[in-house]
Amino acid sequence: MPQQPLVSIDAVPFIVVDDSLHVITARRQWDPFIGQYALPGVLLNAHERLNEAVARALADKAGVTEKVTPQLVAVFDDFERDERGPTLSMAHLVILSHMPADENVAAEPLLNLPVLPFDHNIIITRTAAMLLDSLWINQEVTRALLGEQFTTADVVARMKELAVAAGRPEPVMNNVGRALATNKSVAKLPAVAVGTGRPPARWQWAENA
Predict the structure, then answer these.
(1) pLDDT above 90 covers what percent of the chain?
(2) Residue 121: exposure state from Cβ atoms within 10 A (0-12, 13-18, ≥19)
(3) Are 84 and 68 contacting, i.e. CB atoms less than 8 angstroms apart?
(4) Per-domain residue ranges for the chain?
(5) CATH: 1.10.10.60, 2.40.50.140, 3.30.1360.70, 3.90.79.10. Which one for 6-134?
(6) 75, 90, 110, 209: which could form a disulfide with 205 (CB 3.0–4.6 Å)?
(7) Four-residue CA torsion sign, 197, 147, 60, 11
(8) How far, in Å, CA of 170 to CA of 117, rounded?
(9) 3 neighbors 86 (Cβ within 8 angstroms)
């Protein structure tokens, strides 16, 4: 039989750190690119489901212990992407709520990423586009990104970051507050004064959302 490509499962972990989106990368322990930071990834084992492989990549490569719900982004099939031979990458978005406590892990700002090994920068760009398109359509993903409580400013910031990272024009933000006010999945919270300025509008997910 001809040589068959290997199947790599790459996790793309997004996390909000200091009010901005970051991507979790892990120091590679083996060649190629030993010592460099890259997305956590593993080769798919026989009789292993995709979500199981994502969880294994996160745990083994980045020390992630929290439960996540992976979302398939796309399959990357450039046979030159890995110098070891033809490898398909099935990239999965995950959104973390806690920074992994692992000395080999780094949080890279989404809008200031270094050059990563393989085609990981391309994968992250595609993931940012997928996440932007999923906002409010995929409620589970949106809720994981924004948290249980958030402000209108948080929504605007995440949309701007994702658009820039995806190489898209900045979304129209004029009606974000109005759209939230008519969204039955969220409820407006009482304003909390911050300094002397106008308090930001705050929201939380509705109980039946």
Answers:
(1) 85
(2) middle
(3) no
(4) 6-134, 148-205
(5) 3.90.79.10
(6) 209
(7) negative
(8) 28
(9) yes
Of 74, 153, 155, 162, the closest CA to residue 119 belongs to 74
Q: Is the pLDDT of residue 198 over 90?
A: no
Strand ranges in the chain using DSSP code E only, listed in sequence order: 6-17, 20-27, 37-38, 41-43, 71-76, 87-95, 105-109, 149-151, 186-189, 202-205
Instruction: Look at the block and give the residue holding tokens 């399959």.
Output: 75
The span from the CA of 98 to the CA of 154, in Å, is 18
**Contact criterion met (CB below 8 Å) for 91 and 23:** no
The count of residues in the chain is 209
pLDDT (0 to 100) of residue 151:
94
Nearest in space to 123 (alpha carbons), one of 91, 79, 157, 153:
91
pTM for the complete prediction? Answer: 0.94
Q: Are the C-beta atoms of residues 88 and 8 closer than 8 Å to each other?
A: yes
